[in-house]
Amino acid sequence: MRLASCNSQSISGAANSTYGPMAHESSTPTSSAQGTPPPSYDQLSCEAETEDAEDTLSSQSCKPLIPRPPQPATRASKSASSPFPLSWNLYHRLLLGRVLNLGPHERQPLFAVSQHVGWWAAQPDLVLHRGPGANLPPLAAGMGGVGLGRHSVIYLPPLPGSGLDFSQEFLLRIESTSAKTDGPPHARFRFTVEVGASPNAWRRETFEWRHTYGEAVSDSLDGALSGWKLVRLPDPVTDLWRCIIRGPRSSDEYEVVAVWAYARLSMTKVLRFRFLGSGAAGVLGTRWAIMAVMTALRMYQRQQQERNRDGAW
User: Disulfide check for 110: which of 103, 116, 220, 282 has CB 3.0–4.6 Å away?
Assistant: First the structure.
């Protein structure tokens, strides 16, 4: 296996404009659910030239879709080039409520996550809001696409220069047929998205969520017995790694860049998540971080929906 530079030729893309759940949301934040002012937001630049993902990028033709969440008062670390902490949890606001909080602690919500079920809702199935209030505009959204079955459509901020209000990617359910799996047979969930610190260095890479009982989950999520690990797949043609970061590996020696698992022994905490390796180092960028978080949240939501039907995923 050969090593390749972290910098790569930029790519371009445009999203299909026929799906528009994010375009109908209000673009002006009002107030958070706690009655406190919403966090300030930076703008994405359509022609970002900086290598520092923490610099404020601005453009007259781009909408402010990437947030800068409030800094936690504790020592919880933040993933480089990401609006999310290195580790975060998902909490119920109310036991039967459809709005959840995402943050390092229950009393430090950074983002609201709202769920909408049924065609009458006229909204995506899942919305990650740009702050701790469910009345704030969406940062990303997820829903089932027409004819996709158990696959999902993930709506992200627009690609620079696309002229669209959003872009879309797919979370594909892949039935495992290999005998070499981590634990009992489980479906795998795969997506492809742009990675890199800035748009001029973006390239598309593929990642796969795999169920596991391995150390990547237990060591990273306080002894969790099982969970899901996000594996960074090599290029199928050249077999080149973009960047090699020391950290956990899958059974086939691919890098693990994030993990999530159900929380235990808590009435309000339902999910634990942590970035690892390249995901924690920031080399994969903000767009990848949003996609990783949204796919984990969408998997959690679909599992909850499926449990009352066939009991398996």
Answer: 103
Q: Greater confidence, 147 or 162? A: 162
Burial group, residue 239, by CB count within 10 angstroms (0-12, 13-18, 19+): exposed
The Cα–Cα gap between 64 and 139 comes to 9
Kindly report the number of other CB atoms within 10 A of residue 93's CB atom: 16
Identify whether the C-beta of residue 12 lies closer than 8 Å to the C-beta of residue 161: yes
Task: Find residue 30's DSSP bridge partners.
Answer: none
Task: State the Cα–Cα distance between residues 226 and 211, nearest whole angstrom.
Answer: 8
Q: Tokens 């007259």 — which residue?
A: 60
pTM of the prediction?
0.72
Q: pLDDT tens digits, residue range 39-55? A: 433 333 333 333 333 33
| Cβ neighbour number for residue 139 with a 10 Å cutoff | 24
Round to whole Å and give the CA distance between 312 and 289.
27
